[in-house]
C-alpha cells in the first residue's frame, strides 16, 4: 500500500497546521459550557488565578511523560482496518493506568464522604491539656470523613448502621485523629473480637448477601451469643441507626482518653460532637425509599449544604472524670467501651466548635486516600488501657499499609501534617520525597547532629507516667483483666437507654427488632434475640415475640433500673433549619413573582426551595428544579403547595409527607391537593393560609424537625 491509498483521516501525524496558526487548543479555546468551576486548594479554600494552573487542565493533552498527544480516541493500527500495533505506547499506557485505578476499599467504613473545615477552640480545655490546638482561639484546619460501617463503597447511604465520624486535625504539633462513631458504645469490649463482629455483620460469605444490612442470621447469631453487644445493638436499632443527615448527627470518641495539662496533672475524658442542627433521624420507610430513589442521599446532602453556604457546625465537648487508678466513675468502668456515662452525671463541657466549609476537590485523592489512625496523637492527649482502644492502636496503621500500598501514605497530600516532619524514615513503596544528605540516622555528625531530639518539657510527645496495675497473671477475660464487674453487666445500660426514649422512639426500636429478627431464617437465633430483649424490657420482648409469632422467654438476668437519661432522647428542642429543602409545587398558571417572593423568604431563613412542576424548563421565568417524573417526597423536608395540579404523583407526594410528619403548607388552589388526599387542614404541621403566613409556619414546623404530634401518640 502506498501513502496515497490511505484515507486522509488515518494519516499519522495529522496534517500540521500552518506555522503561524495557534495550537488547536488555543484556536478553539474552551466552549462557554466547558468553563471549569473555581479552583480550590487542599484546605478547600478557593485559589485565585488562572484555570490553566489546575492540575491536568492545561491546554495540551500529553502522555504521563509530557509528550503531546494528538489523538487519544484511536489506536495505532496496521492500516485502516488492520490489527492494533504493540508500538502504540499511548494506548498501552492509557489502559494500563486505568487497569490499576482501584485500590482496596476499607475493610470497614468503606462507604463514606468527607469535607474540609476549621476547628476553633474556646480555651475551656486549656487547664486540662497542653494540646496547643485546644488553647483559646486556636484555629486548626480539619478534614472530616463520615461513613457507614458494613456496606461496600457503592452501597446506599441510608441503611440502618452505625456511622463513622472521623476527624483529622492538622495541628501545629502534628496530626491528631479522633476516629469516632455516631454511637457512644461499641459491640465488643476487646479488640481481639473485631474480626468476629465484622465477619458476622458483613454480607454472608457464601452468596455475599445482604449488602449493607444487619438484618441477617450471622449478625444476630453473633450479637445474641455475645451479649456484651446488647447496648450497641439497641443503639443501632433505635433512630440513631437512621440519621437524617451527617449534619444532624452526634459524634463520640467512645473510649475514655487521658488529657495531660501543662503541669503534668491528668484527667480522664470522653469526647462528644454536638450538632448545632440537633440530632435528627429518618423514619424507616423514608430510608428504604431513599436507598432506591437516591442512594447517595447523605453524600449529596452534605456537599449541597456546604456548597450552598450552610456550613454545618458541631460543638466539641468533654465529659471530665478524675484520673484514678480504678478508672471508675459512679460505678461505671471508664475502660468499658460498651458503657456510657449519662450526661446528667457528668455534663458535656464545650471546648470548641467545628465548622465544615468546603467540599473536597477530588474524591479519590482526599476522601478515599485519607488515612485515620487512633495513634495520631499530639502532646497533651493520651490513650487509656481500654482493651478495645489498645487493639485499635495496632490495626489502623497496619490497614493503611495494605490499603494505600506501603508505608509512605503520610506523604499523600490529604495526610500530610501541617507541622515539620523530620522522621528519618526512608525509601519504601511510593516514596515521593527527595531526601537530601546522607545522615538518615541518629546520632550523627555528618548531618550536623540534626534532627535533634525534641525537648521533653516542650514540644515532644511524652507519655505521662501512670500507675500500671500489678500483673497477677496473663488473663484473657475482660472482667478479670480490668478488675471490674461492670464489664460483665450487659443489660442495665441498654435498659436505661430504652427507658430514656419517648414512646414513639421506643416503638421505632421495637419495629426495628421485629424486622431484623424477622429476617433471620433460624428460629433458634430469633429465640435468643427474644432472650436478649426480655433481659432488657418485658414489654419490648412481648411486642417483638408477637411479631415473630414465638413465645416470650423468661428473663435470665435481673432487670436493674438505672435513672433514665433524658439527653438520650432525640425529641427535644427546636433547631436551626439551615439547608433544609422545601418543595414549591406550582403549575403553568402560577405567577413567577409569587414563587420568587416565597423563595426569597425561605432563602433568607437559610432554607433551600426547590420548584416542582409537571415538566422541566421554566414557568413564568422560574426554573423548575424537579419535574413530577424526577421528584419523590423523601428529598424534601416540607412542601408548599402554591397550586393544585391533578396528578397522582402530586397526591403521592403529599400523602408520603403527611405520613412522614413533614411540614405541609397550602396557598390558594394548593388546598385542593389536601382535600383530595383527605388531609385535615388543622392537623399539626399543616397550614392553609396566605403565602406569608404559610411560609412563617412552615419554618417553625421545620425547626421542630417533624410534626411529631401528627405521627406519635405521646409527642
Ligand atoms: Fe475502626 C476504620 C471507628 C473499633 C479497625 N473505624 C474506622 C473508621 C471509623 C472507625 C470512623 C473509618 C475511618 C475513615 O473514615 O477512614 N472503629 C471505630 C470506632 C471503634 C472502632 C469508634 C470503637 C470504638 N476499628 C475498631 C477496632 C478495630 C478497628 C476494635 C480493630 C481491631 N477501623 C478499623 C480498620 C479501619 C477502621 C480496619 C478500616 C479502614 C481504616 O481503618 O482506615 O483498621
Mean pLDDT: 91
Structural class: alpha+beta
Using the 3D structure, state the CATH architecture of the domain at 112-191 and 243-415: Beta Barrel
Quaternary: single chain
Radius of gyration: 29 Å
* CATH T-level fold name of the domain at 112-191 and 243-415: Catalase HpII,  Chain A, domain 1
Please bin the fraction of helical residues: 25-40%
The CATH class of the domain at 112-191 and 243-415: Mainly Beta
Function: Decomposes hydrogen peroxide into water and oxygen; serves to protect cells from the toxic effects of hydrogen peroxide.
Region (Disordered): 1-83
EC number: 1.11.1.6
Pfam families: Catalase, Catalase-rel, Catalase_C
Quickly list its features.
715 residues; alpha+beta; Catalase HpII,  Chain A, domain 1; Rossmann fold; 10-stranded antiparallel sheet; 6-stranded parallel sheet; 19 helices; 20 strands; 26% helix; globular; binds CIS-heme D hydroxychlorin gamma-spirolactone
Could you describe the 3D structure shown?
- This is Catalase.
- InterPro entries: Catalase, Catalase_AS, Catalase_clade2, Catalase_clade2_helical, Catalase_core, Catalase_haem_BS, Catalase_immune_responsive, Catalase_large_C.
- Keywords: Heme, Hydrogen peroxide, Iron, Metal-binding, Oxidoreductase, Peroxidase.
- With 715 residues, this protein is an alpha+beta fold.
- Among the domains are: 112-191 and 243-415, Catalase core domain (Catalase HpII,  Chain A, domain 1, Beta Barrel), CATH 2.40.180; 581-711, Class I glutamine amidotransferase (GATase) domain (Rossmann fold, 3-Layer(aba) Sandwich).
- The protein is built from 19 helices and 20 strands.
- Strands 1, 2, 3, 4, 5, 6, 7, 8, 11 and 12 form a ten-stranded antiparallel sheet that branches. A six-stranded parallel sheet has the order 17-14-13-18-19-20, with helices on both faces.
- It is globular.
- CIS-heme D hydroxychlorin gamma-spirolactone binds next to strand 2, strand 3, strand 4 and helix 9.
- CIS-heme D hydroxychlorin gamma-spirolactone is lined by residues 106-109, 112, 145, 147, 164, 166, 179-181, 186, 191, 194, 254-255, 337, 370, 372, 388, 391-392, 395-396, 399-400.
